[in-house]
Amino acid sequence: QVQLVESGGGVVQPGRSLRLSCAASGFTFSSYGMHWVRQTPDKGLEWVASISYDGSNEDFADSVKDRFTISRDNSNNRLYLELNNLRPEDTAVYYCAKGVGVYGYRPQDYWGQGTLVTVSS
Amino acid sequence: DIQMTQSPSTLSASVGDRVTITCRASQGISRRLAWYQQKQGRAPKLLIYEASTLASGVPSRFSGSGSGSEFTLIISGLQPDDFATYYCQQYNNYWTFGQGTKVEIK
Question: B44-67: per-residue pLDDT in tens?
Fold first, then answer.
C-alpha cells in the first residue's frame, strides 16, 4: 500500500532554514509527480510546490517562490522541501502528496500524515 | 489565480440525509476539479476527480457533477463515517483549494 512519511518539522526562528523529507513506499516513486501542500487553520489548504517524476520540472506557489526548493532522490524514494528565509506565515502542517501521473495538472491521490513547521522567535 | 468558493461553510445533517456541497471557480476550469474528505487530525483523502470520477475504494454514495465554474458534491445517504470536512480543488492551472465545508451531526 502507498505510504508517505514526512519528517523534519519543528520550531525555527524567522529567517532560518529547515529541510523537510518525505519517505515514499508502496508504489514506483520514480514514475509520479510529487507535491507539497500546507495547511493552517486560518488559510486552509495551500499548494506549495510540485516536481515532475524525473525532477526536470518544478513549480512553486508565489508565496514561497525564491525561498523554497523542491527536490527528489528517486534512487532512495525520497522527496524534499528546503524552506529558506522562513516567515511566521509559513507556520503550517506540511503534507507530502503523490500526484496522479508523471506530472502536469492532476490531483493528489495519496497524502502523508503531515509534519508541523512553526516559525517563531 | 483561480479562486475556489465553497458553500455552505458548515452543514448540519443526520445519518441517512442527502447532502449537497457546492463549489464555484472564479473562472472556467473545464472538469478539472477534485473533492477531498478530511477528518480531524488526518490527511485529506481523494474522493472524486475530473468532477465526477470516483477515486479507488470510494463508496458509491458519493457523487460529483458540474463543469466550467459550478460543481457539486452529493452524499446520498449520509453515514456516520462521513462526518468530516470536504474540500474542492481545481487543477486546471496550478492547484487551489476551496475553504472547506464541515459536515457536522445535527
Answer: 999 999 999 999 999 999 999 999
Using the beta-carbon criterion (under 8 Å), do A114 and B43 form an inter-chain contact? yes
- Number of alpha carbons in the 13 Å side-chain half-sphere of residue A6: 28
Question: What CA–CA distance (Å, rounded) separates A32 from A34?
Answer: 6
Band the pLDDT of A104: cuts 50, 70, 90. confident
Judged by a CB distance cut-off of 8 A, whether residue B53 touches chain A is no
Chain A, nearest residue to B34 by Cα = A107
Which residues does residue A4 pair with via DSSP β-bridges, in sequence order?
A24
